Amino acid sequence: MLNPKMEMELNKQINEELYSAYLYQSMAAYFAANNLNGFAKWMDVQDAEEVNHARKFYHFIIDRMGKVVLEAIEKPPAEWDSPLAAMEAAFKHEQHVTGRIHFLVDLAREVKDKATEVMLNWFVMEQVEEEASVDEYVQMLKMFGGKPQGLMMINREMGKREDD
Ligand code: FEO
Predict the structure, then answer these.
(1) pTM value surpassing 0.90
(2) Cα 24 to middle of ligand 1, angstroms
């Protein structure tokens, strides 16, 4: 059985992951509206990945005979000042998610829940990858994004992202 606090926080994480999906779908729409279809594609894939993250938590709670309780998903922003501002916001959001995952690991240790701790190991490493992949584009945008050719090059690159 899941510890009640652990169960509540795992449920909260479903909401966090679904908000992440919503945020990235909103970013996809922002990029599509600005004719940056490569950026939009990248965000579409990211959106699907976040839904998968939510599903991992959902199934884990059920497998542990816990109760899934879904809450309202917060409204994400719809506009950013520039592609760089959007990608910086995505990076900041991933840092927030990393903080949440680390908090869950600490809680699992505190309540001596080995199964949750092991399940979370995947997310700890996933967050390393998530931050690194967003930061790569933040850095590219800082270097080349100020010029139309640079932005188009990054747009082309991002559009190559395959569905996971
Ligand atoms: Fe599910 Fe991007 O963290």
Answers:
(1) yes
(2) 10
d(CA 164, CA 96): 23
CA distances from 80 to 9, 71, 116 (A): 30, 26, 36
Cα–Cα distance between 95 and 142 in angstroms, integer? 19
- Residue 149 CA, ligand 1 centroid: distance in Å: 30
Nearest Cα to Cα of residue 49 among 9, 84, 20, 29: 20
CB-ligand 1 contact for 50 (6 Å cutoff): yes
CB 103 within 8 A of CB 116: no
Q: How far is the CA of 96 from the centre of ligand 1 (A)?
A: 9
CA distance 97 to 92: 9
17 lines ligand 1 (CB under 6 A): yes
* CA 89 to centroid of ligand 1, rounded, Å: 13
Closest CA to 12 of 53, 59, 65, 69: 69
HSE value, Cβ hemisphere, 13 Å, CA-based, for 42: 23
71-103 pLDDT, tens digit each: 999 999 999 999 999 999 999 999 999 999 999
Atom nearest to 53 CA in ligand 1:
1
